[in-house]
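Q: Hi! First time doing this. I have a protein sequence and I read that you can turn it into a structure. Is that right? Here it is:
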Amino acid sequence: MSFVVKFEILDPPQLAQGAAKYIAAAARDAVAARGRFVIALSGGRSPWQMLRDLAGEDVPWKNVHIVQVDERVAPAGSPDRNLTHLNDSLLSQVPLPSDHIHPMPVESADLDDAAAHYTKTLEQIAGVPPVLDLVHLGLGPDGHTASLVPTDPVLDVMNVDVATTGVYQGRRRMTLTYPILDRARCILWLVMGSDKHEPLEKLRRADTSIPAGRVRQDRAIAFADHAAANG
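A: Yes, that's right. Below is the predicted 3D structure, encoded as structure tokens:
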């Protein structure tokens, strides 16, 4: 299966701007239709400029809820935390109500209980089962997305929406699982860099040999730079 919505290939500045404008338009549409916009954001370096651009877009922030796709188990404020960079790039720049920011509770002593609690949070803001309006995903050189990483048992978790992983690149993670990703009204992929070319080609073929290839594609849009698209 290939992407049936749209596939945008742009230079990095236009890529970030295009993705930000797409998210802003989706937010306005969701608020007009349902009164709120629930977006799940991923970590990594690639989205930083997109998030800075999003801060300058026309977004009905008082009706926006931000949740996390995944998070590293690390102390508050750590540079390893996705939330740290999300704060720097977006949250500190926009008039978003503080109770509309929903960080993953990775500082909990009981991570499995914390994952279950986060599921309850998602249900409170996005229904039962929770349906997210837009999920932003990245793509790793090894084909991982969110913290759904090759060989980790989390890949087979289908009975809960939030789960924990083993150690990957030095940290355990908390992550959304395939069921909630596949229920999302839209998936937005942001893919940058020549090291993403091979996994991007597999993603376009819905190649299930990589974790990203298992994500539902019929509600997806991908923004990729020329380096990722052409190698």
